[in-house]
Each structure stands twice: as structure tokens, then as C-alpha cells.
Amino acid sequence: MSGEQMRSLDEQVQEIKSDVLDIAAELGRLEERLLYPSNTQVALFVELEDGDALRLDAVQVEINGELVAHYIYSFKELEALQGGGVQRLYTGNIPTGEHRLDVSYSGKLKSGREVSGSEQFAFVKDVEPKMIGITLAGSGNGAISLGDW
Amino acid sequence: MRRPSLLLAGLAAATLMASPSSRSDALKDLYFGEALYHAAMGHYFDALQRLDTELGQHYDLDEPDLDSLHYHIDAAEFSVGDFELRYRMHHRAGRAIRAVLEGDVEEPVRNEAAFRLARIHFQKGQMPEALEALDRMEGEIPPAIRDDVEFLRANVYLATGRPADAVPVLKSLADAEGLEAFVAYNLGIAFLQDGQKEAAVAQLERAGRVRVSDGSSIAIRDKANLVLGTMLLEDERNEEARVYLDRVSLDGPFSNQALLSAGWAATRAEQFERAVVPWSLLAAREPTDPATQEAMLALPYAYGKLSVHGRAAEYYGRALDTYGAELRKLDASILSIREGRFLEALVREEIRKDKDWVIRLRSLPESPETYYLMELMASHDFQTGLENYLDLADLRRKLREWRTGFDAYDEMVSIRRAHYEPLLPGVDTEFRQLDSRMRLRLEQHERLRKRLQAMLTAPRPDFLATREERRMLTTLESIGEQLDQRGVPADDPQRRRVERLQGRLLWALRTEYHDRLDAFHRHLEELDNAIVALETRYRQFVRVRQAASHSFEGYDRPLVRLRTRVDESISRLDRLMARQGRLLEIVAIDELVVRRDRLEKFQDDARYALADSYDRATQLQARRDAE
Questions:
Q1: What is the distance between the alpha carbons of residues B466 and B341, in angstroms, rounded to a whole number?
Q2: What is the rounded distance in angstroms from the CA atom of residue B555 to the CA atom of residue B412?
Q3: Which end of chain B is more exposed for a tag (fewer CB within 10 A), N or C?
Q4: CA dist list (Å): B38 to B24, B72, B418, B428, B607
Q5: Shortest Cα distance from B49 to chain A (angstroms)?
Q6: Residues of chain A neighbouring B392 (CB-CB closer than 8 A)
Q7: Residue among A84, A38, A6 at smallest CA distance from B21
Q8: What is the 8-class DSSP label of residue B370?
């Protein structure tokens, strides 16, 4: 086994990974500036309120009555959300001012009962980028709540 | 390099991943949460990209304590190291963790960092450095990693030939939750390495009976029984050996070797009927397994010893058929690898859906028989090489995707430039005029505000005169001056009239002063609100104006630079992938050649034994006929 060669290549692979990560970071910043300028940028994130209380199947979001995201979750994605991860659901552009956000979801509770809901929110877009966190609890009051970040 | 699998198996029990450990740790930074989301799905590149950017921005802030990442900064620093480790970037992971270690952090955090660093060194086979990192730990160790720290220390001692030091550490971990089977097994190995054979036998005997339920612990318990059985077999304690070999689960990863050894234990005790049982079971299993291939030869040997030559000949015949088929498969596999199909199959994404994806490669047309590579896969270097090859393929795919975006970005920028450039000079001219008018109004507002402040401390009724009143006062003052110049006496009716009018105006200014001051204050407040709205609109305009410029200015050089970097990286990746791929092919072919040589030897043995069996069967038949 050419262990020495494998290790030498491994070093080079680590270097190129590092370089590509740097490129990705620079490209990410440039794309964000080019595609989503801060004065119009709006980003929507989804998180689950309480670990495994909700088995989320799908989320749909409209801004000012226009569908911007309809997402169906895979098992892996659901596990990532249940583990405390936050999903970037949508990034787009809207003008400054007041806007309407409609969020609906469907899924199953821990008990196996199917659950769905929808909620309407108002938000204001200022000149700064607008980050909105959508937290889904699955049941009770505040099954869908909005956080400003 | 092949590392003792007992150590690798032990590490699997340790948790590597930093995540919001409990839901009570409310997430305060969306981007950190986003990085964790990618990491939880195994997308470590994306996780690192997000978290690197977020950490970079955090440390660039004048007041990072006000940033939402501040609440998770320790976890974020650890996570970077973890993600890098999982993305097999050990150098960067080591640097990230060293940064935590050398930073101004609390004792438990520092100790956790030292543990993580030690683990990286251990995984890289750098034992002195691993021990040095462990020795840096002092004071409070987080309870969640206490057992893992000691287990790692024991493993480092074992890997550096210090079993006597490992023994007390492992003894102290006898009740470590989740590590029971690993600790029990490693303690047996420590005794063995230390030359305490009887203690090793007793300990492995205990390790082979540990009550566990998870898959990896059951596997290590099986391994304890297999090692013990093999040791006793080597000492010709065949009956004892069989007891432990029989304890190995029939469906675990060590079952084939255990069945093979159980057969040999019976054979050495000349109990051929008993040897037939495990070997019959084994001979019917996956024909690519080396133990199965050996059993195919061993089984007819046992039948021969039982003088069942006809059946022996039949099984030798089956073995020859299987060996022939496997040799053809091996030849085809070697050819397939030489033609580059192994690497082609490796980079097909749809095949990599489950953990046994390397085995599933064999199902692709004209792909090599990857079952033969499973043993090779267990070696650290080959596994690293394979994973690196896949990572390189993923990076190349990403870079190629990015490269296709550059043309679109160029076009987008030029369209925006064509739209804005003719408009902006006119907009700027108009804006400058509005800007100067606005500044004038702002100065006026500031003067009025100062005037109000002054009047609050020293009343000035004249400041609150209306324009008409100010005009009248000025006129009366002028008439008075003219009368003075003309020497008009004080009791002149005209002068008296001027004074009466002046008095009337002053009366109004003095008596209405407070009402006028209130009104002035109220109007100024209204003006303040208007000024705030004006300034907001002003800032908005400035931002929008800046955004218009930013939408097409300042992209050309970064795009050129990125395009060059991406092109260079693709070239480097192509070269590196070719070298990495070639090396994998060579190693894989070498492995297949070894297996082919072994099979050819088995084939020769089987041919000879088949002929011998026929002879013996014929002789036996002749003897029976003669009788």
C-alpha cells in the first residue's frame, strides 16, 4: 500500500478544499451583493420549536399573495430541523415598506395525528436586509410564530 | 497504514458533533442554526462556508459582544473544528481547536478543546502529540466527555506500546455508560500486550459476555470471543476455543471467521463431524468472502477425513466451479478497474445513498466486484483516499457550476450599467439641488431650535413677533429716527403717536409672550417630526442611490479574479483527481491480485484434492466390490 503517497495526496486535498472554501466565501459575498442587495433583501428561515414534537411534511409561504416557497421535507432534512438546525427557505427581493406574509404547513404530531395550519403576518421592510425566522410548534396557540432577526 | 481496528472501533463510541445539545439552549443566531442544519445532513462544505463567513463577520465587528453569534461563540468555534474534521480537513481543524485552546476561555471549554485536539492527533496516528494534548487538561472537565477522555488516553497508551499504563485507566472505566464493551475488550488486549496472558484470557472471557444491545457493542463483544477463541486455538486448547467461537453471533461481521475457526478447532481435535457443521454453513455464504472460500476447500477435506469421498469429491467440484467463477469475476474486475470503470462508478451520485454504497457499486454494469475491496476499505489510508476522491469530484462539480454563473453575472452587470449610467448624472444633478435646499432648511431648523433654547433661559418677546409686527416695529423705529434728526420735540403729536403705536406693539408682544412661546414650541415639535421624516427619506434615497451604483460597480475585478481562481482550481483538481484515482486503482488492483493468487492456490489445491478424492472413492468402491 502506498501509504506515503496517499498521505501526501491527502495533504494536497486538504489544501485545495481550503482554497475552494475561500472561493466559495468570496463568491457567496459577491452573489449576495449582486443578487440580493441589502436594501431589498428578504430571507426566510424555518425552525422547529420543540425537537421531535412535529414531523413536518411541508411548508408553503406567500409574500403579498405571491407564492415564494413550497417545500416538502425529506427524512434527513426533518432530522436536521429536529436536531436544532435552521433551514434557509427563501431569499429574495422586496421593496421597503409594509408587506404581508402567509405561512402554512402540514405534518404529523408525535401522537401520529395529522396537523396543519396557516397564519398571516404583517412585516415592515426597511433599508436593512430583512431576516425572518418562522418557528413551527405544531399545535396550540402560536403553532406558527415569526421572529425578527 | 493499517491501524489496530480495536482503537478505531473504540472511537466510534465517542460523540464528535457539536450541536445545540438541548433544545433549552435557545438559538439566537440564524446563520449558526443554518450551519448546523447543513452539518446535520452531512453537507460539511456548506456548513463550513456558512459558519466561516459568520465567524469572520463576527470578529470584524467593533463590538462583537452585541452580535447574536456572541451567545454561541464557543459552540461555533468548536463546530468549525468538528465540521473541518468531518470534512477531513485535519490541519484546519487542528488550527481551529488550537485557537480555542489558546484563547481566553473557561477551564471546561479549554479542556474540551484539548480533548478534541488529542482526538485529531490520535486519528492521524500522531500519538505523542495526542498525549501532550491530553496532558494539557487540568481542572474541571465537562462531565459529558470525562469517560471519553480517559478512554482516549488508554487507547493512546495501547497504541504507543504502554499497555501497563492503559490497564488502570481502563479498569477505572469499567462502568462507563456506552463504552462497556469497548473498555472490556481493550482491557483484555492491554493484558495481552502486557504479557499477562491468563489475565487477558479471563478479561476477554468477561468482554465476551458483556450485556449490550447496540450494534457496534455487539460487534466488539463478538470480536472479544473471536480473539479469545483464536488465541486458545493457537495454544491447541481446541475444546475451550470452540466454546468462545460458538458465542460469536451468526449474523455479525465476525461470524464468517468464527465459523471457519470453529471448524478448524473441531478438526484439530479430530472431530470431523463437528467441523462439517460450521463449514457447511459458511460454504453456503457469500462466495467472495475469504473465509467462505477457505471453507469451500475445508468442508470436502472434512468429508474426506470422514471417508465420505463421494461427497468430498462433489464439494471439491463445487469449490472448483466457484473458484473458476470468482477468478473470472476477479479478472473482469481488474480489467474494469484498468479501464477506469471503478472511478466512473465511484462518482455516480445515485449509488451513494446508503452506508453500503461501495458494495452496491458491484450492481452497476461492468463495474468491479467491490466485495473484494471491503477488507481494503477497512484500511484507513484507502478509505481516506476514496473519500478524498469523492470530495474532489464534488468540489469539481461545484466549481464547474460556479464557472457557468460568471457569464450570467457579467451580463447582469452590463445590463444594469447600460440602464443606470445614462440616468444617474441627471438624478445626481437634481439631487444636489435638493440636497442644498434641504441643508438650508436643516440649518434654519437648527437656528430656531437654538433660539427656543435661548428664550427658555432669557425671554425675548421680539423673537416671537410676527412678520407684520417686525415690519411695523422697523417702520416706527425709522420714523422715530427721522423725527430725531429733524429735532421734533418730545411732545409733538406725531412723535406721541409713534410712541403709542410702539407701546401697543410691545404690549401685544409682552402679554402674548407665553402663548406665542407655546405655539412656537408646538410648531417646532411638528417641524422636528417633519425633519425626522425628511432625514429618513434622505437616507433612503442615499441608500437607493448607492444601491444603484453598487448594482453594477465594483464587480469587474472580483469576477475576473474569481473566474481565474476557479479555472486554476479546476485544473489543480483535475490533476489531483487523476493522481488520487490512479493510486486508488493501483491499490485496488493489487488487492484483487492478492485475492486472485489466493484463489488460484485454492483452485490448485482443490484440483489435486478432487483427483485424490476420486481415487479414494474408486479404491473404496473397488474394496467394497472385492468384499
A1: 96
A2: 10
A3: C
A4: 21, 17, 39, 45, 57
A5: 6
A6: 13, 16
A7: A84
A8: G
CB-CB neighbors (< 8 A) of B56 in chain A: 25
How far apart, in whole angstroms, are the C-alpha atoms of residue B368 and residue B140? Answer: 53
Place of cell 451580463: B411
Interatomic CA distance for residues A107 and B429, integer angstroms: 57
Residues in chain A with CB shorter than 8 Å from the CB of B38 are: 80, 85
Q: What is the pTM of this model?
A: 0.75
Q: What is the spatial distance between Cα B298 and Cα B283, in angstroms, rounded to a whole number?
A: 9
Q: Contact B521/B439 with Cβ under 8 angstroms?
A: no
CA B370, distance to chain mean position in Å, is: 27
Instruction: Output the CA torsion B212→B215→B219→B222 (10° steps).
Output: 50
Examine the pLDDT at B616 and tell me if it is beyond 70.
Answer: yes
Closest CA to B352 of B379, B370, B334: B370
Number of Cβ within 10 Å of residue A12's Cβ equals 16
Distance between CA atoms of B121 and B118, rounded to whole angstroms? 5
More confident residue, B186 or B94: B186
CA of A88: which chain B residue's CA is closest? B34
d(CA B592, CA B370): 10
pLDDT tens readout for residues B325-359: 999 989 988 998 899 888 888 877 666 666 667 66
Q: Which residues pair with A92 in a beta bridge?
A: A42
**In angstroms, rounded to a whole number, what is the distance separating the alpha carbons of residues B68 and B385?**
39
- Pairwise CA distance, residues B165 & B173, whole Å: 14
| Cβ atoms of residues A85 and B83 within 8 Å | no
Smallest Cα–Cα separation from B402: which of B570, B554, B573? B570
Asked if residue B2 lies in contact with residue B140, where contact means CB atoms within 8 angstroms, the answer is no
Cell 452506508 -> residue: B355
